[in-house]
Amino acid sequence: MPVAMRPIIATIQPIIWGGAVQPIDKMRVLDLPIAWGLILLPRSRRIAPPMTTPESTKLTIRLATPADAARLALVGAASFLETYAHMIPAEDLVAHCTTKHSAETYAAWLADPSATIWIAETDPAGAPIGYLVLTRATLPEASPHPEDLEVQRIYVLSRFHRTGMGYALMNLALAKARSKGANRVVLGVHNDNVRAIAFYKRQGFDVVDERKFTVGNSIFCDSVLARKLR
Ligand SMILES: CC(C)(COP(=O)(O)OP(=O)(O)OC[C@H]1O[C@@H](n2cnc3c(N)ncnc32)[C@H](O)[C@@H]1OP(=O)(O)O)[C@@H](O)C(=O)NCCC(=O)NCCS
Predict the structure, then answer these.
(1) Is 115 found in the same domain as 188?
(2) Which terminal Cβ of the chain has fewer Cβ within 10 Å, N or C?
(3) Taking the CB of residue 145, how many other CB atoms lie within 10 A of it?
(4) What's the angle, vertex CA 133, arms to CA 88 and CA 65, rounded to 5?
(5) Which strand (E) or helix (H) includes residue 3?
(6) What's this model's pTM, rounded to 2 decimal places?
């Protein structure tokens, strides 16, 4: 690139990258006509900034707010599909995600003062990569006391497994349950989800029963687990 062009490129960079100024070398991959063309594109059609890898991505967890219903629906459906695509038929997956991972489902939990939802995100981009939903215990098979709580959902996208995110989410839920005076935290998990069951057992959960769990038109067998807090 002619040296004389560099000040021009430096000027347009913040526009192209949405405000995040990139080193001038990044622009060298673009030939000039493309770079000028980008200025004319609406923001929604501009090329994205360079990708980081999952391993180098900074992650954060925060409490979800009512504004997060759509983000939770997105990561909820994506992580459910990813976890069960190998064992649940397509029509059941679609039916389940359409209803149980709708924005309305999460909006209802977010509006429930007895429920707490944490959302895990990339930092600073804020893309949702995991979440945990903690509610009053609703699993009859666990014979819950009124003050017991239930991990309704804990999911992390697989590219971010083994980053400590699962432990971090669960530890937040257990700390919250203790602070609310719960005796136990309970949950249900598909019997064949060996990885998750092993994770829960390492977190101090024991199998206490089984239940049937409906996904679309299929019925699956879940293990019911509980962890005593005192
Ligand atoms: C279950 C689940 C939430 C666990 O989350 P996770 O992020 O994989 O768990 P963690 O990273 O905290 O811990 C997993 C292992 O990674 C290890 N680990 C933690 N940080 C690590 C790091 N930085 N580098 C390498 N390993 C790490 C942990 O020590 C742990 O190892 P251990 O089991 O031998 O002790 C996750 O596997 C998941 O979302 N699965 C799919 C969804 C699912 O099945 N949900 C449950 C449905 S009921």
Answers:
(1) yes
(2) C
(3) 11
(4) 125
(5) none
(6) 0.80
pLDDT value of residue 141: 80
Residue 50 counted as domain residue: no
Return the pLDDT at 230: 84
CB 189 less than 6 A from any atom of ligand 1: yes
> Within 10 Å of residue 128's Cβ, how many Cβ atoms?
21
Positions of the chain with pLDDT lower than 70, given as ranges: 1-52
Residue having the nearest C-alpha atom to atom 33 of ligand 1: 199
Q: Are 18 and 118 in a shared domain?
A: no
Ligand 1 atom nearest to 151, measured from its CA: 48
Q: Are residues 204 and 223 in the same domain?
A: yes
Query: Domain with 143 in it: what CATH number?
Result: 3.40.630.30
Mark whether 120 and 221 lie in a shared domain.
Answer: yes
For tokens 């070398």, the residue is 25
Q: Are 170 and 203 in contact (CB under 8 A)?
A: yes
Residues 13 and 75 in one domain: no
CB 79, CB 156: distance < 8 Å: yes
End-to-end CA distance of the chain: 68
Question: Which of 100, 134, 156, 169 most suits a substitution to test ligand 1, by most atoms within 8 Å of the C-beta?
Answer: 156
